[in-house]
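Postdoc handover notes: sequence design on the structure in folder B. Input tokens:
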């Protein structure tokens, strides 16, 4: 990427799907979330809306739900990273319960993929289970950031797989793992985020769904001030929250211009190893 033309506003949390399955995947997700998607879910459809959303680049998070989907997903990821360089950064994924999960992490690194996403609710594990620890050890070793869905999720509303308490334990046990806890540390569990996660040095937050779920600006600022201005990134969860709304939410917070610049792009660029 041309260093002089760095993106000003990066959305660190979006989802896109291959053309062929996009409509079906969105319909299914809309079915249990009850949220009408903002985009058609495709890569080109999402990029074509950037100007309207007020973003210049985004991270698209894949989720390998089955134990075998990762090879195909990560191969496509690598191709898409080359094809949409400067516009979209595609994270790889592997189900930690897959028998070849550790080998796939090596392959993700070799493919030049910039990060990994896991979704404990979809993938069927609790984040602090000891059987996942070899996976975390490997993630720490390859040095890539790992995004966790964190907090409540409509897919498994009564059984939360990634709570602030669980993730605090993981963060303390793996101090070299760069953990991005989506949804500002834990969707709808923000008091616990403030008390258990804010300030941990190897933890990053994105702002995905803060606007939709009505996180108050007071509590946002309490967490932000206790955490670090260097480890919070803009996120929307597009197509489930309109990135324009996410940007507006952040702009309305009582942050300095320097803090906003970090939140909108510098922290993401640094985590993506671009600057
Ligand atoms: Zn998401």
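Designed sequence:
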């Amino acid at each position: 990427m041309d260093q002089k033309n760095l993106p000003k506003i990066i959305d660190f949390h979006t989802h896109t799907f291959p053309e062929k399955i996009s409509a079906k995947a969105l319909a299914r997700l809309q079915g249990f979330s009850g949220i009408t998607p903002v985009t058609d879910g495709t890569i080109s459809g999402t990029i074509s809306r950037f100007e309207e959303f007020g973003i210049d680049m985004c991270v698209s998070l894949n989720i390998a739900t089955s134990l075998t989907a990762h090879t195909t997903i990560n191969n496509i990821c690598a191709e898409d990273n080359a094809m949409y360089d400067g516009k979209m950064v595609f994270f790889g994924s592997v189900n930690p319960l897959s028998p070849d999960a550790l080998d796939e992490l090596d392959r993700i690194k070799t493919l030049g993929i910039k990060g990994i996403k896991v979704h404990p609710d979809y993938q069927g594990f609790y984040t602090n289970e000891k059987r996942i620890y070899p996976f975390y050890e490997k993630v720490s070793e390859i040095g890539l950031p790992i995004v966790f869905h964190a907090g409540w999720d409509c897919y498994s509303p009564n059984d939360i797989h990634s709570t602030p308490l669980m993730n605090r334990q993981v963060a303390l046990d793996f101090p070299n793992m760069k953990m991005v806890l989506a949804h500002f540390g834990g969707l709808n569990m923000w008091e616990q985020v403030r008390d258990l996660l804010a300030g941990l040095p190897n933890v990053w937050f994105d702002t995905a769904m803060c606007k939709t779920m009505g996180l108050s600006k007071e509590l946002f600022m309490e967490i932000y001030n206790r955490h670090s201005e260097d480890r919070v990134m803009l996120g929307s969860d597009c197509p489930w929250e309109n990135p324009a709304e996410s940007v507006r939410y952040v702009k309305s917070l009582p942050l300095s211009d320097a803090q906003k610049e970090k939140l909108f792009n510098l922290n993401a660029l640094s985590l993506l190893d671009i600057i």
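Context for whoever picks this up: Residues 19-33 form the longest helix (15 residues). Don't rerun without checking with the PI first.
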